[in-house]
Amino acid sequence: MTSSDSGKAGTVDTLSGGPRRRARRRGGAAPLPLLVPALIGLAFLVLPLVALLIRAPWHSMPDLLTSTEVWQALRLSLVCATAATAVSLVIGVPLAWLLARVEFPGRGLVRALVTLPLVLPPVVGGVALLMALGRNGVVGKWLDSWFGVTLPFTTTGVVIAEAFVAMPFLVISVEGTLRAADPRYEEAATTLGASRFTAFRRVTLPLIAPGIAAGAVLAWARALGEFGATITFAGNFPGRTQTMPLAVYLALQNDPEAAIALSLVLLAVSIAVLAGLRDRWMTAS
Amino acid sequence: MTDIEKPSRYDVDAPSADGLDARLVVQRGSFRLDVALTAAPGDVVALLGPNGAGKTTALRALAGLVPLTDGHLRLDGAELDRTPPESRPVGVVFQDYLLFPHLTALDNVAFGPRCHGAGKAAARAQAAVWLERMGLAAHASAKPRRLSGGQAQRVALARALATHPRLLLLDEPLAALDARTRLDVRAQLRHHLADFEAVAVLVTHDPLDAMVLADHLVVIEEGRVVQRGTPTDIARHPRTDYIAHLVGLNLYRGEAEGHTVHVDGGSTVTTSEDLTGPVFVAFPPSAVTLHRDRPTGSSARNFWRCEVSGLETHGDQIRVALGGELPLAADLTTVAAAELDLHAGAEVWATVKATQTHAYPA
User: Fold this and answer.
1) How much is the pLDDT for A147?
2) Are the Cβ atoms of A203 and B100 closer than 8 angstroms?
3) N-terminal to C-terminal alpha carbon distance within chain B
4) Are B68 and B136 in a shared domain?
């Protein structure tokens, strides 16, 4: 009885599962016109990184990485990227909330403006920042004459340039998470006596924390690698504004081995970031 | 925490102002909700109606989550129409409970007291008392996803009650539960609502929930109140097809002349009541008998020529939908249905005894 039952079930299974399985096998044997470019694409992305590892001056690595310049640049990079991420969090999360939760005229335009730095060449961002915050800039002029604050070519300038480029990543990520989160939790909180801000702080913020964390890591990685806007707005002064990417570029001119060593450090950091996010993006689909 | 309720509790000048007095008008595109609600403290009012009737909108308007287009909202004599939701002495149990997933059951319940100014320890102590009362002390440290449907429902109720609301709103409180749990939870909820000293308003599309839990029913269709009364009254004297269908009655509207009612559509129904003027006449599907041929020796005073338009199994009975002279529903045993050789399109005669019909003024 049981065996005939299971036999019947097996037959049904094969019948319904058969065509699907065949389809999957056909999907596995990719046609050559797709397979060849796909493999070239893969090699294109992986080969440079492999070359970096092959050419790495492993024996002189300890010396290179313990030099003062490298440590200075690495420390500055980490501090500035972290500060830029902090700035992005403080002003970017509320901005994401505004875009996701408040209906206002021109919201689409505001979202487009927020996204613009994502596609803007970073050098253009740097020039734009100079026009706004430079000593003769639209706002910078007043900062200089009223408070004596000068932003370009300072460490603060590095943070500003990095935040300008990296914040949109955070805003887009957090806004997406907010849209996916159920706004009725905020309503439930208000019926319990919470103000809208309390509801945001005690209910929404913990609920979207994973999205904020992912956005922050993304923004941090982007800030760490920032080159164009930083060199344009903050210059290239060792110890003050020379971050790792700038140091790599400079080292490449007179000490290629050092450039490779520095690049490997940045590669290691990138891989660490990716490993940290793998649950979120690599297992997707 | 008590600061919030003081004004509403003590600023009442007349006892008649106690409780809920509302007319909720909400215009949304072409949909207009216009519902008047009054209730005394201790009352449990059920808003009953089909999906899309505006029940939930009415509930959200009471909570302040939807602004009133017009009308008024007074609770214990205090005007609430312009009060934001966080300042209303209103507690809500949402349809899928909306327990905060990142907080334990205890902290979910403590959330309200915290927002009303209680310290962390005091709020937790109060929450523990509420969970104890709901029989959930053992689950205080559980996160919502580890709770069963019935437990989550009680935590949601405790959370809403922990702010000492003067108006408790429940949106489809049993809809998210499976049939087995529903029975228990319905009985418990009835018990808790009976203990609640202020006004409770619940929204449901389930007539059984409404009749078991509420003292007063307000039936809403297309944004308007079509009938209100006690559960017994509404079950016995339905005034719309929707309610008649809910309580399982055949319902017709017509003009009475003595024992004869001329039903809209041309047929007549003979009743035991002696009435004149516009009336409703109702009889249960179980009162209908079906025959293959025109009945001759039957004592029944009512017979109509009908055509079977549908058959449906209802437990061990068969519900037959009939068209023809008088559209009606009839309940038959499976054996009777087989003997009559019923199928869609079959012609039958339906009879109903006058004593089994019930007429009442429209």
Assistant:
1) 87
2) yes
3) 49
4) yes
Residues of A in contact with B144 (CB under 8 A): none
Is A12's pLDDT higher than 70? no
pLDDT digits (tens, 9 = 90+) for B86-112: 999 999 999 989 999 999 999 999 999
Find chain A residues with C-beta within 8 A of B167's C-beta.
Answer: none
Question: How is domain A78-238 classified at the CATH fold level?
Answer: MetI-like fold (1.10.3720)
pLDDT band at A27 (very low <50, low <70, confident <90, very high): low
| Interchain pair A190, B85: CB under 8 A | yes
Q: Do B86 and A193 touch (CB under 8 A)?
A: yes
% of residues, chain A, pLDDT over 90? 47
Cα nearest neighbour of A208 on chain B: B102
Q: Are residues B352 and B281 in the same domain?
A: yes
* Residue carrying the six token digits 């603060």: A156
ipTM of the complex: 0.75
Which chain B residues touch A182 with a CB distance below 8 Å? Answer: 98
Contact B162, B88 (CB under 8 A): no
For chain A, what is the mean pLDDT?
Answer: 84
Predicted TM-score (pTM) of this structure: 0.74
| Gap between the Cα atoms of A186 and B40, Å rounded | 30
- Single out the residue in B195, B215, B243 at which a domain terminates: B243
Residue B16 at interface with chain A, using a CB cutoff of 8 Å: no
Flag whether residue A103 sits within 8 Å of chain B, measured between CB atoms: no
Spatial separation of the C-alpha atoms in residues B278 and A216, rounded to whole Å: 71
* Shared domain check, B337 and B211: no
Q: For residue B109, what is the nearest residue in chain A, using CA coordinates?
A: A192
Chain A nearest C-alpha distance from B117 (Å) = 10
Q: Which domain holds residue B12?
A: 2-243
> A267 vs A50, A57, A159, A188, CA distance in Å?
11, 15, 21, 45
Domain boundaries, chain A: 78-238
